[in-house]
Design brief:
With 135 residues, the chain is mainly α. The protein has 5 helices and no strands. The chain crosses the membrane at residues 34-52, 64-84, 90-108, 117-134. This is Alkaline ceramidase.
C-alpha cells in the first residue's frame, strides 16, 4: 500500500484552498480527513437534540434558529473535511458567516422590551451575509 500522501481517495484530488495537518485518506478511502470529519459530530448531534427540545418546549424561534445554524455549520464542515473539495469548503465557511449573523440578531433580541422585529438590523445582517457570499 502506498504512503498516505500518495493515496487517491474516493473524492479525487483536493481542490480546496486549505488543507489541515491531517494526512489525506489515511484512515478511510471515503473520508479525506477522518478525524476532522468525525469531530464535527459534536456540531451536528447535540444541536439537533437542542432544536427538537426547543420545538417541543415551545421556546422562541430564535433558539431554534441558533440550533439549526450550529447544525448547518457542523454538516458543512463534515462535508468539507470528508471531501476537501472547493465547493464543500464554501459549504463549510459560509454557514459560519450566516450563523454569526443569526447569533448577533439573537443577542440583540435578549435586550428588547416589546414584541417587535428589528428590521434595520435584519436588513444590515442579510446585506452583510450577501456581500460576503458574493466576495
Amino acid at each position: 500500500m502506498p504512503p498516505a500522501a500518495d493515496r487517491e481517495g474516493y473524492w479525487g484530488p483536493p481542490t480546496s484552498t486549505l488543507e489541515w495537518c491531517e494526512e489525506n485518506y489515511a484512515v478511510s478511502y471515503y473520508i479525506a480527513e477522518f478525524w476532522n470529519t468525525v469531530s464535527n459530530l459534536i456540531f451536528i448531534l447535540p444541536p439537533i437534540y437542542g432544536a427538537i427540545q426547543t420545538y417541543k418546549d415551545g421556546l422562541e424561534k430564535r433558539y431554534l434558529a441558533a440550533y439549526l445554524c450550529l447544525t448547518a455549520v457542523g454538516l458543512g464542515s463534515w462535508c468539507f473535511h470528508m471531501t476537501l473539495k472547493y465547493e464543500m469548503q464554501l459549504l463549510d465557511e459560509l454557514p459560519m458567516i450566516y450563523s454569526c449573523c443569526v447569533f448577533v440578531y439573537c443577542l440583540y433580541e435578549c435586550f428588547k422590551y416589546k414584541n417587535t422585529v428589528n428590521y434595520p438590523l435584519l436588513f444590515m445582517l442579510i446585506t452583510y451575509s450577501f456581500v460576503v457570499s458574493i466576495v
